[in-house]
Amino acid sequence: MTDRITDTRAHKENIDKLSVQGGPFDAWGHNSTYQKHLRKGPSIRFTPERKELHKRLLDKYKETHGYDNIDTGRKTIMMAGAPGAGKSTTLKRALDGSSDTYLPIDPDAFKVLLIGEAIKSGEINTFYNIPEVKQLTDQGEKFFPMDFGSLVHQESTHLASKLLEDAIADDKNVIIDKVYSNPKTLQDGINDLAENGYTDISLINVEVTQENSHNRVYSRWEHDYTHTLTTGQGLGGRPVPAEFIDSVFDPKLRGEHPSGPARATYEAAKNNDTVTSYTVWDNNGSEPQRIFAAKGDSLHAWREAGAVPATKSQSNRQQSPETQLSLNNRLSTTRGQSPQKDAGPKPQQNNNDQHHKRRKPPEQGGPRL
Q1: DSSP for 165-186?
Q2: What one-character-per-residue DSSP string does 170-231 give?
Q3: pTM for the complete prediction?
Q4: What's the pLDDT score for residue 60?
Q5: Contacting residues for 333 by C-beta, under 8 A, at least 6 apart
């Protein structure tokens, strides 16, 4: 074994290679905690011991986030955007930093909790003993606990879903933070909420380019990884597989829109009356810029005018709903048409969303990203 400091770029590339479908870090694979702690039988369920752990982690999360004090107004904010889009930063700006009346549904928080439990129980050692990992560590490469985040991905998604179920049962206001790269995933989520009496849904889409998504995810991971590497403190950085980032921008998924989340939120805002607010932010610069916002009557008028997708203005200035609606009408007039309901781009059928082609255990229904 050498004493060299790990080359962070090469290490991240190795994690990406290990994380591909069928690889040792596959979120659905046999090394994942999801597969390890299932009780096989007529139905697929977690073992009693794992269910007890889940209850403890859910209670801990609720206590940390002041669950009992969350408002019971049945309001929902659904955040969508590629990894590294800066959804949390944008949300703070959109709400002026006041989100205490909402419960955040955050699968990534459960990743940290599950990794922490793996360290306590010693299960983390099974990750380090994966042959491909052992080979790299024998060559001097350094792995830290959060490098194995994909191995707890499906279980963290399950915990976030259970938290949302509890919150809905208690009529809590919720913030759901997901990528939402597939229109069906977002539509299913809206339908579930509406069926449970949640008819005040705000959609917030945060846009970044594919390049910025890759760069920001890497920078965030590298910062935390290097901190642990040099200080011995912390759990390292949480990587997002490059394969997944690329899938979010797959042309077959996004259609005529800049990303899968852009398409999903546009179609949901256009077609669902339970969506009462729709906002699009561009976060490719130094700070988020709101480029479209419509709520209530202005959202209804936008739909009636043809629901033209938001585009970043050349001046990069924030546009009011009235300004955007006026722009939509001018575009229609320029084309020699009156505003039509179906003037927006036609949805394209996605045949290449790898995250919906994957295995779907009966209890989980597959991942919701």
Answers
A1: HHHHHTT--EEEE----SHHHH
A2: TT--EEEE----SHHHHHHHHHHHHHTT--EEEEEEEE--HHHHHHHHHHHHHHHHHHHHHH
A3: 0.81
A4: 97
A5: none
